[in-house]
Amino acid sequence: MVSSPEVSIRVVRDLGEIEEIRGVWSAWNRQPNSDIDFYLTVLRCGPEVVRPHIIVLTRSGSADALLIGRIEDTRFELKMGYRTVFRPAARTLTFVNGGFLGNESPENCKVLVHAVKGALRKGEADLAFFNLLRADSPFFRHGLRSPFLALQPHRAFVLPDTVEELYQSMSPKVRENVRWRAKKLLHDYPRNVTVRCFRSTGELERAVQDVEEVAKRTYQRGLGVGFVDSSMMRQRLHFEAQKGWLRVCVLYVADEPCAFWLGALYQDTFYGSYTGYDPSYAKYSPGMFLFMRVIEEFCGSNGNQRVREIDWGFGDAQYKSFLGNREWQESSIYLFSPTLRGVRLRFLTASMMLADRLARRVLIRAGLLTKAKKVWRDRLRGKAAPSLASDGGKSI
In whole angstroms, what separates CA 97 from the centre of its chain? Predict the structure, then answer.
């Protein structure tokens, strides 16, 4: 659907061609997930990656928009609540978060979506996956229509200039609770509470070991999501450390790690990724203690290390509503190929989403959703404690 002779589409399928678009890509990019060098790192190190798939829209001879994706051979996870029910094999055309770069005009959006659907019709992939698009973006509004939508909030925190303003921005109840729990922790462990922020490649081994020590005790470990001490994770952290982005913040109590917060400082925004805490310290809210100490440091930062905003990352949690003053809605979107496998995946996805939504409605009406989540997380935490698998997390 190229509506004008001035508009043309080409697809970059080879690593060598990527350097040809480095200039416009770098000029347009605004976040680490879609950074060109991070993309290349994932491409080279991701065991499931088959090849690049970058759609370049050219207008009047010049690049006007990019849609950054890759072809992957994956296991497509279909879940009911926290439980994975099916994991069928699928070739997926994955578009990275923040991967629409350039001119988001309605016409460009429609042309790019038409190009994606064309790739699916040709059998290049079984489905296309758009990773958490902002619902207020032109691409979401003008380009994509899908019945598989589950909107969720994404929160950020525009930082005040001073620590005093930071605490004043919190409600009196939250402020009092945060300070009370912090005092209790410091009272029970005098001179034995420290926070350390790892940044360099030389510190990575210690950082990963200490984060893993906490991560294996969290309920997220039972889910198999978030931080995992893997070869791919270490390569990612090494890349971020080399770039100067990496921040691995760890809270130590009695010389033992008990909470962590990982992220990347990109331009003037800290993009949070993985969090977790040791549940044996839950009464102290160690995650919130760590957040506040790190954010206090952010408020005092300046120069090229100035942090103006925290992006809390994907998923929602109570602490994000406490420490957030900006939010938007977002949703991942799936488009399926018209092939037999694509139709089957579409049917399974629709069935699982319908069953999950019905179950949630029943629990909400009965006032049991929060309790059901807690029971399930406690079960997962019990399974995770003796495990040496992975963790990470979206909640503290």
Answer: 8
